[in-house]
Target: ATP-binding cassette domain-containing protein
Amino acid sequence: MISVKNLTKYYGDFQALKGISFEIKSGEIVGILGPNGAGKSTTLRILTCYLNPSDGDAIIDGKSILNDEINVKKTIGYLPESAPLYNDMCVFDYLIYMADIQELEKSKLNERLNYVVDVCSLKEVISKPIGELSKGYKQRVGLAGSMIHDPKILILDEPTNGLDPNQIVEIRELIKELGKEKTVLVSTHILSEVEATCSRAIIINKGDIIADDTPRNLSSTFANHNKSAAVKMSIKTNDNIETVKEKLSNIKDIYKVEIEEYSNDIKEISIYSNLEEPRDEIYRFVKSTDWIIYEMTKVKENLETVFHTLTKGDE
Ligand SMILES: Nc1ncnc2c1ncn2[C@@H]1O[C@H](COP(=O)(O)OP(=O)(O)OP(=O)(O)O)[C@@H](O)[C@H]1O
Model:
């Protein structure tokens, strides 16, 4: 469905992509992961014909990005990192406008409108101006607009960026749902999202692919030489999520803290550490607070720790 061959991109003298190649089969949901500046957006913008490669080619559903731009764009639904939504437009008008831009046949308009409104759960906001919607709803509108023309492939650039944990879970569920019918390529920093939704992860760093496998295989491949670990913790506290995150981030050797879920005073947290056994330090810290620990489990290997090991020193 997508065949990328030796894709190279220079910005002036700077080589942002160093001849990457990969294949994506029909029906796959593939996550493209990498630290800031790795080349994720550049790759996605080339595949969607918004940027020319310096060298190489990509064949999208049989069409080359080099000489069949119009048909490539028809095959793809693209949600850029910051989707250009029109705040004064109501959701309905925006979807009609996107259908128009994509030259969707009039006879298919009603059916497609009903489908995207339904799958993206937009019914209750359909007449509202986009500017009045929450970030989560705006992202749903962006997704709905990007697939109004029924593309075979969805390319989503950091679709959960800036969303709160509940909205992230919702968009993750939506991507899974869409993946039942479409081939999906999604870039993200949220690795738990890749583990939960993607059948494959392509890890990219400094313009090169450094790993390409199922999340499970990646985790087990690196099981023996990975010195970092993750801890899943459930706590009870009245501190808000930002405060919890900040306090835990200050513990020595912790490099990342994610609040996975929360309801009132219960917070489910993932904590990532450079140490093989981070629980001692975490416990000592929690003892100095009024938090109550409901659960604390070490997870030796997951995609986050693999990712950290592979890209260590590059962030
Ligand atoms: N228009 C541009 N001109 C010059 N350099 C650029 C341009 N766009 C991107 N770059 C550089 O190319 C590299 C790859 O950028 P890209 O945006 O593809 O990375 P990314 O993996 O998407 O990062 P992020 O997660 O921060 O969005 C970075 O070093 C970036 O500074």
